[in-house]
Amino acid sequence: METSVPQATLALACGSEIIARAEFTSERSQEVDLFGPLKEILANLPEGKSLSALVIGTGPGSYNGARVGIAAGQAIAQVHGCGVAGICSFEAVPTLTWAAGDARRGSFYLMTIGGEPVLHEHADFLAQLAECEGEIGTFESVKKLNCPEGSVTQVTPTAEGLLKAWQLKSTEEKDALMAIPAEAFYIRPPHITISKKKSP
Questions:
Q1: Which of 50, 104, 157, 172 is spaced 20 to 30 A from 191 at the CA atom?
Q2: Which tens digit of pLDDT belongs to each residue from 45-81?
Q3: Structural domains in the chain plus CATH codes
Q4: pLDDT digit string (tens) for 131-149?
């Protein structure tokens, strides 16, 4: 399941063969829009069969989309008695070496695929981009990054891409991912404003 971007996708696979696929577009109402396609996908599960694993894209992307996908995935996994693995959604785009994006509040992030994001102010972000070797991708409009044309490519992760990324992992990596709870990929800690009102 990849629900951390507006162009969400779901796929049901047996080994590397995709049995069924569904997609939907949702900006802010994934908690409503997900369940029709999800029901459609699960209806294609062969009679008497259950899921052996569930792989979910964790972002970075839509906070709501990632959280809804993870929560739905955990509920399905309980029914089927299988594990859930969360994978950074950028891993679903195999051509990428780097990921970039707007981290909000005047900062931008850059990270290697599989690495941790590093925050930069815009001038430093552009300087770091210029030194990157390999393809740099973003899930956002490239215009939002205000970077030189051609330096960053807008990409979209898919459920099929997540499946391929999962299959390329070693048994040890899969076991390690299954052993930890899937969590949304956070670029930075949440911005919390302390109330100026005094507690009663």
A1: 157
A2: 988 899 999 999 999 988 889 999 999 999 999 999 9
A3: 7-91+157-178 (3.30.420.40), 94-154 (3.30.420)
A4: 999 999 999 999 999 999 9
β partners of residue 9:
2, 23
* DSSP track, the chain: -B-SSSEEEEEEEETTEEEEEEEEE-SS-HHHHTHHHHHHHHTTSPTT---SEEEEE--SS-HHHHHHHHHHHHHHHHHHT-EEEEE-GGGG-TT-SEEEEEEETTEEEEEETTS--EEEEHHHHHHHHHH--S-EEESS-HHHHT--TTSSEE----HHHHHHHHHHS-HHHHHHHHTS------SS----PPP-SPP-
Tell me how far apart the alpha carbons of residues 55 and 92 are, in angstroms, rounded to a whole number.
11
